[in-house]
Design a protein that fits this description.
about 70 residues; mainly alpha; elongated; membrane; transmembrane
Length: about 70
């Protein structure tokens, strides 16, 4: 039974780690494209600005930024 508990912990660890890695990569790619010269050029040329809300936009760090 010792190895069964270890296996469950390892699976949970990999799932949580993969989710965190996904969030980091997705955020970096989105911000990198939006702030790049090509991204700004395409935004000016085609007028596409995607304000796709993420669940990370609702966290407490982003709340009340206009108040300061």
């Amino acid at each position: 039974m010792l190895f069964g508990g270890f296996l469950v912990k390892a699976i949970i660890f990999y799932i949580v780690g993969g989710f965190i890695l996904y969030i980091v990569i997705e955020t970096a790619v989105r911000r990198g494209i939006n702030h790049s010269i090509i991204g700004q050029f395409l935004e000016k040329k085609y007028g596409m600005k995607e304000d796709k809300k993420s669940f990370l936009d609702d966290d407490l760090d982003n709340e009340n930024k206009e108040d300061y």
